[in-house]
Amino acid sequence: QELLCQGGEPSHIQSSPDGQHLLVLQKSRPPPLPRVVAFHRHSIGGADLERNWQPPQPALVGLLFLQSPVTLGSWVLAIVWEHGRTEVWHFVVAGGARARIVSVCSQGASLVWCEERPPLDAHSAMSKCAFRFCICTRALEVGEQGVRLGTVRIVLHNSPEYQVLASPQHIFLVPAAASFATTSKFLLIWHPEKAKLTITAPSAGFIRSKVLHSSSESDFRKLLLGSVGLLAGLAPLDIHTSAVSNGGGLLLVGTKGAVNMVEPDGTQRHIFDLEGGPLAQGSPVQLKTFGSILACMLAGALYLIDQNSGRLVEKKILSTKEMHFLEAPGEEDSIQLLTQTGIYSFSFSKPENSSRPEPCLVEMVFEEACRYYQRRSLSSSKLTVEKLKKGGVFQAPVALTAILQHSLHQKQKPARGLQDTYAKLLSTMNLELQSYMSLELLKTCVVCAPESEVESYCEELVEQEVSRVLHSDMDKDNLAYLNSVFASFPKAAWKATKSCLQLQQNGDGLLVARATPEVWKKVLGGLQQEEVGQNGVVPLFELICASFLRFKPKWLPSFVELTQQYVSISWAYSSKEGPEGRVPLYKRALGVLARKNKRSEADDEMELELLLCSKRPKAVLQALHLLISLKRWQRVVEVAEKFSKLSPLLNKEIFTTLLAEFAQHRELDPYLDTLWPLCPAELTASDILTVVLQHLPHSQEDPVPFSSEGNQLTVGLLKPLLQRVVQRPCIQDEMYSDALQSPTFPPPTPPREH
């Protein structure tokens, strides 16, 4: 269809809500007389409506279509002038003439605008003049009987100049280019339903929100009182162009070509970087969203970008630099463009029979294959993705790419055109492909889910990711990735760990794990700390121990005991390949405990349990000395009684340690009936007396038979032990007992035969 616009170029173009009419506002006509022309998009005739204004006439600010529930199926146009007057075809409403409107938008049946009010004093300071703007709103209801205006409500007063942009639920306030220097560092988001203002900055994210209960709280300077220090240190905004997406977010294009999205909650995410270097101040950039596709027009180039992934879908070089995006209701897979020669439609949906894979997915396959082959290559030459694609030597990535483009992008259609070997491989990989598709679907659910469901989706996503990494090569990249997952989602990572290791308590209350040997080897036989480096990444065993300490500390000693049982089965004792051949597992768990910021009594108890669960002689003796230093004598005796049974050597060390303590004080006297049976068989009375005499406390006074302190060791206390040792049969006697046993009298003489 040919657009009949003569005598000037359109500077403002808007489509009616029903998509049937097109409005063109011409400002640069010679002489400068504004004109509005309306066309029916599907007719071949001339303009349906046309209106000219003669001088002197103020400048037009914008054209707005107002929603009217009374007159369904029709549209009403409002024209807003610079001096505040609003004209509604066919009704005219006069406004005040003192204020000057600088920006206006509509949300539903309400107008929202930013107006400049003249200063009360002509000699006001420049800083005060910068804050003479107000953000106002007013209901405008269009009915069959005419137009009814609501009362004017001030949202924000004493503010700098803002450009107002409306989304379905929010109003974005973007500082004007000539705004005051200190106020051009952040954005404001007004939530009309909640009467709340949110302060956000691209360099800092969400800053604060405040509910405006009364008009006294809507003062701009009072709004910033609690955030002045933070706002002063922010970098100035870098905004070249701004627009609102169909999803309700604010699209911002920086002067360097960076495209970002500011969500209504104040968070920001990066989408894409436009080519061409820094953007000049006068170079126009047009933005429009169609479904999940962001269309961006810059210097005759049309960029189609996936908003969710930031991927460039397509780039088209157009023959004209002057064009406008048009509304196309219900058509999210095509773009309508208005140019000087007509209206054109551009479709960006893929054909139904397209089998081309997603470009980023194919690149991901080859990049992963490149890293895999590079690690196993004996050559010193660097392997690149380009060499991998052109070489033809490595067929695995080629086969995987062929399978992906026939399975993931065929919408569950049967594979066609695959080689026989690829078809067999596809049947083998079917479960893996289903897992991949479910994982991608889950990621989509996380992005689109309401806030109440995000946590459950995140837990499921983390569990799948942890399981995937545990079933792949545990290299430095995967280990660093697991560290970031455990740091970002600690609770979900703990649940994923329990699920992957199948940790649970049996009927006796003991911790059991039913993990596969492959998973155990990843947990225990992976990279050690000296191989990981000092960049904050810790091995997987330490990650899991830290998770135990945070969410289930009483399970940690049992877990360490389980790991030692698995190590004893899978690796030979002191094998350099196994984890116990380097730093023992209990020491690694103790290292995690030592890294805690705050030490408590529970941590002391945990240290004891970790030492004892190892059942190593040195660790048991260390725990025993720790208990003695804490004067926990009941626990000392229990540990001695339990671990003396492990080995005769450990039994001798434990008994000698406790005998030395017995010689120094009387704290162990109530437990002597339990301690004396622990005396090793090879200890003689002489050995016992030697230990006692070596550890008797040194007194500054001359020894006396009866001490007044009452804590002196006496022979009476030591007598039961010495009697026990003396009465014990000698080891040599036991060796020859059979030979020494004989009758007291000689046997009778055998009878003689006559």
Automatic annotation (TrEMBL):
A cellular-component GO term for this protein: lysosomal membrane
GO terms of biological process kind: lysosome localization; protein localization to membrane
Top-level lineage group: Eukaryota
Q: Where is the BLOC-2 complex member HPS6 N-terminal domain?
A: 2-345
Which InterPro entries does the entry mention? BLOC-2_complex_Hps6_subunit, HPS6_C, HPS6_N
Q: Name one Pfam family in it.
A: HPS6
Q: Tell me the ranges covered by the BLOC-2 complex member HPS6 C-terminal domain, including all copies.
A: 363-752
Name this protein carries in UniProt: Hermansky-Pudlak syndrome 6 protein
Q: Species name for this entry?
A: Cariama cristata (Red-legged seriema)
